[in-house]
């Protein structure tokens, strides 16, 4: 009786997972073997291993890596300082608030800020540097992406730092370690799980960013996400789009596996 | 100040923001190679003293010397002291070996030296075979030893121990008390041990500092503190006590409970109001007729080595007796005690005044004796 | 747990009640098959007062929905979630939809105003005999440029875009057919060319253009050009009209080598429920006065000859939007090249986009 009612409770979850997790993945895998004429074929996979798509994959990786790296560089010290402030949860909230604003809206705002007659160039003028092209460059793309992803990186790192027992820091100081050594040998290793989940949360979506590539980078940056969008909406070559999606899923799985948390206790 | 002094506090005060001082104008000296215990209830400031020594907090006022060197501005990582923390604070991302080696690696010792010293330290705490274990695989007692090894491997002149036994069960705690004392003897360095457990303090220390409300109430060897507490707080905190209001009629005669008793205390003003302490184990159960006091037994608990008997005399004062003999609840019994069992405390006496008074009549006692 | 379940049940009940209520409201206001028609059009592509006028005249209620790409519109029509009675896709989408059997034939006897349409825009290759579609607006692809930023420069040829002094000045619309199309045109090939060598040549030529390209963008191109973010844009004439309405300094030209001629036409999808209403709507939009008013509001080129007579002289003689017959002769409508060729176009377009300056 007990177990049967428990199984009943499981039904919604099983249904959910079957419908919204397993089925879509199976469909994507299925479509990836269908060519544009609706026949079963491996042509899409052959096509993926041509220079165009390999180059695209490489460039996706490169930009996702840069975005993740810069996000981390900004987010870690920010999270660290946040844990030291008096009203840390209020400050955290303030940093998280921008992530409630629609992504598209923020992207459009940056179109204005980075434009030739925008705020950024006005500042450059003031400092006597002169107007530069900011929009549609690698810089603007990475800057805006980093801006958008920062809250998602700060959150897990902040939680890890906040949970960190301060006596570990005391112990390290007590054992003769300077602040710098303590940071690298104690604080960073003990919050690495937060860093890992932050990197996952940033790297994986960054790999398939597509809207920003057009709005902020003016298609000067082409990622796998752009290609998926193109194949589904323009070419209507769902097979090729699915094939790229399959590779994205595989890549993400591999990343999750390698950055996975091995439990250490305590 | 003698050359054997290793730690000296001069009028040290620690205050956070505008709150009341955690440590209020404290001065003391500690000698090389002794086992000191800072004893007091939680929040009394004992851990603050420890952290001031280690440098993890800074004094608001006053001077702190280690080895005759003013260390107020020396950061924690530059002080020749190490700490065993209350929850051990062993780094969970490092194994036993690396935890112990941490301080040596920071000092950039050669690998071979590190290897040797870590092994030595682990042997010292009987953990030779555990080098490669993860911290999570160690029991509470083992973690305790790792924490000690991690501290002593740096060859500190002072080892600070912040309630290191509080997380252990009773049996292990008693075992570790012996081990710590033994360790201190073998190392020959100064131990400063913080605890709120008076039994622990009495059993292990060369000297105890009893602390309350940011002030040192009394310092001395365990027997002195136990036998001659300076005030009601110390008497109450160290062991169990019967404390009763009384009046010092003249030297060696004290009045309480409506009767006069012979005692060994002197140096008071005639008819001075005092508090009288008699330890429960100094009270002997006898018949009503033979006892100094008549007490009606109210309750009785079996405590293993003794019975704890609680009763009230005709004036309504509560008396606690530790006795190997059983009493009968509801019956009237007599309590007998020797003059030496009575300890008379002056109200509001400071430690200096107390020491001075004791010294004065010790000298007198010697004169009288001869 | 119990409270949670109660809360969930309450949530469900409220949701169902709301759905029921909305449904009831809809039917009480007459939103049901018989006396409503659902129109599916591009955003901002009709004068809204005309919808009110149509409702008044016919007693039908119009439900107006918009889309932002032909592909999105096709997908939604195909899925049939909403039954659209009239849709306004572009010519190549119509060709595809006919192929996929998604459209009803239009009963010309119910569209007397069809006579108003210029014969030049009837019976075209994508829909011979206008069996499935009636033209709504038409236009070209050309170069919008800002003379104040460029001095007295003129653009008569696509090849003018390749000039060395135009570094970082050009914005392109993000469309494979449009970009590959002007690449082919610049080489004097047809923009429906299927010769892979020609296509490869066009792609390589476009790659040489990369230093001059500032960005390849979407709808925001009109905002960027109007704000002077870039001096030159390769855009649809409609977009150019929008920009010039915002910033009069801009010019629009269709290069001499030729370009694309596009149509947005009204069709009746197979999912339609009110076919009669759909015909009424199409006929209404072809009325000379109505079409003139709509053209004035939307700012695109109308195929309605009768309406043109009602429009101001300077509008209909503006060669930028109503090109001369000689130039019109060089314009080509996109042909449906088949999925495979379209895929190849896209592949080359992707390569071009990935080519770094």
Q: Report the average pLDDT across residues of chain A.
A: 87
Helical content of chain A (DSSP H or I, runs of 4+): over 70%
Radius of gyration of chain A: 23 Å
**What ranges of chain A have pLDDT less than 50 throughout 5 or more consecutive residues?**
none
Work out the number of β strands of chain A: 0
Shape of chain A: globular
Q: What structural class is derived from the secondary structure elements of chain A?
A: mainly alpha
Terminal CA distance of chain C: 61 Å
Q: Which pair has the most extensive contact?
A: A-C, 30 and 29 residues
CATH fold naming of the largest domain in chain C? D-Maltodextrin-Binding Protein, domain 2
Secondary structure tally: strands of chain C: 9
Membrane topology (chain A): Multi-pass membrane protein
Family (chain A): Belongs to the binding-protein-dependent transport system permease family. CysTW subfamily.
Organism (chain A): Perspicuibacillus lycopersici
Domain ABC transmembrane type-1 (chain A): 57-259
Topology:
The complex is a heterotrimer of chains A (266), B (370) and C (357).
Chain A: H1 2-31, H2 43-48, H3 51-84, H4 88-96, H5 103-114, H6 119-126, H7 138-163, H8 166-174, H9 179-190, H10 192-207, H11 211-215, H12 224-233, H13 238-259
Helix pairs in contact in A: 1-13, 3-4, 3-7, 3-10, 7-10, 8-9, 10-13, 12-13
Chain B: E1 5-14, E2 23-31, E3 35-39, H1 46-54, E4 61-66, E5 69-70, E6 81-84, H2 96-106, H3 111-124, H4 140-152, E7 158-162, H5 170-187, E8 190-195, H6 198-204, E9 207-212, E10 215-220, H7 222-227, H8 232-237, E11 242-250, E12 253-256, E13 259-262, E14 272-278, E15 284-286, E16 293-302, E17 307-313, E18 318-323, E19 332-336, E20 343-346, H9 351-369
Chain C: H1 2-28, E1 36-42, H2 48-58, E2 61-67, H3 70-79, E3 86-87, H4 91-99, E4 133-145, H5 147-150, E5 170-173, H6 176-186, H7 196-209, E6 213-217, H8 221-226, E7 232-236, H9 237-246, E8 251-253, E9 261-267, H10 275-286, H11 288-298, H12 305-310, H13 313-316, H14 325-328, H15 338-354
Parallel strand pairs in C: 1-2, 1-3, 5-6, 5-7
Antiparallel strand pairs in C: 4-7, 4-8, 4-9
Helix pairs in contact in C: 6-7, 6-15, 7-15
